[in-house]
Amino acid sequence: xxxxxxxxxxxxxxxxxxxxxxxxxxxxxxxxxxxxxxxxxxxxxxxxxxxxxxxxxxxxxxxxxxxxxxxxxxxxxxxxxxxxxxxxxxxxxxxxxxxxxxxxxxxxxxxxxxxxxxxxxxxxxxxxxxxxxxxxxxxxxxxxxxxxxxxxxxxxxxxxxxxxxxxxxxxxxxxxxxxxxxxxxxxxxxxxxxxxxxxxxxxxxxxxxxxxxxxxxxxxxxxxxxxxxxxxxxxxxxxxxxxxxxxxxxxxxxxxxxxxxxxxxxxxxxxxxxxxxxxxxxxxxxxxxxxxxxxxxxxxxxxxxxxxxxxxxxxxxxxxxxxxxxxxxxxxxxxxxxxxxxxxxxxxxxxxxxxxxxxxxxxxxxxxxxxxxxxxxxxxxxxxxxxxxxxxxxxxxxxxxxxxxxxxxxxxxxxxxxxxxxxxxxxxxxxxxxxxxxxxxxxxxxxxxxxxxxxx
Length: 456
Prior knowledge:
Structural class: alpha+beta
Order of helices and strands: HEEEHHEEEEEEEHHHHEEHHHEH
Number of strands: 13
CATH superfamily of the largest domain: START domain
Radius of gyration: 24 Å
CATH architecture of the largest domain: 2-Layer Sandwich
Number of domains: 2
Distance between the termini: 50 Å
Largest sheet: 11 strands, mixed
């Protein structure tokens, strides 16, 4: 059963949206400034005197600032930095990070293997558009569980934060994709003590294409630790999440595959018709693989395990694979299903342009808005129908069918109500004032801890 959300959806005025956009803009700008300092001034090197290695895995390393203990104002704040490279593209990174609805938030948590026990999208500040598909700002509430062996020391942690994604340019005009997670305090979403321990954090990830197949990732995070006992646990759990950033591209690939299956399988209004009937191939009856043309006993038997869900062809063992997809059921549950796809369809899916996938999802969501369906629920319909086909297909004879730029933080939204800010919004790791000097944690804490500049 899907957990109940404790907070209602927030109604945001124009002033509320502007305030949230301003906070996001300041924090992302500060992260970009530090990234460029790291690239051009430090030449991509970290000083061992300032940073200590926490964990490393594959090509990603996570560091903890050595100077946090020397700064009285940061006694409860830790500055972490994750740098490295992963396989993929910046567009796929943006697709994997993009969240517009609660359904997508839960799906992303499953693909990322995050210990999320409850979550909600409290407000949508900026919706992606066809001309800016990667731009999105939402306010989210997320609960993360605690491993059983640590439950005596820590309760489940919840947080309320701004989640922003988008594309911007460095000073040398290189494109980078960003994701911001930044805690805020809302009177409408108070702490749920004693059930959860409210966590305050802020991290901004930047993704830059370094060659045709690899992306450099740079993530800096400020986390607030409640006490010295739990501080190492929070540092470790944060580092673990940064080391799993390669899963963002896995999330993007599975999202592409789900989109590919949904758009290639005409089940809306024809749920009883298997996709194989659209792609009848005489070679199937001869027991030949629909991809490589080799004879195959499983193809000759027309085993359901050999049928590609996307194109409907029967393929041999070497030309097919199984992938685990997640989809939302009609009850809102996130369910996992193993699907069979041929390697040709899988290649077409993962090579699809991420921006085009998002645009198509946006258009599909608008078409179905009156029916209150989403791309994921359509996928669940397809996967459920596929299970039905696999149970009955062998008993059903198959016959040939009869003759188908602007800025990253626009503050205006057509749906926004007018009026002054009603949220009582506050930046939980610093002031929400638009003054650069008052944005204490972003400009003072970061620059002091990273550069050792007390005048920052």
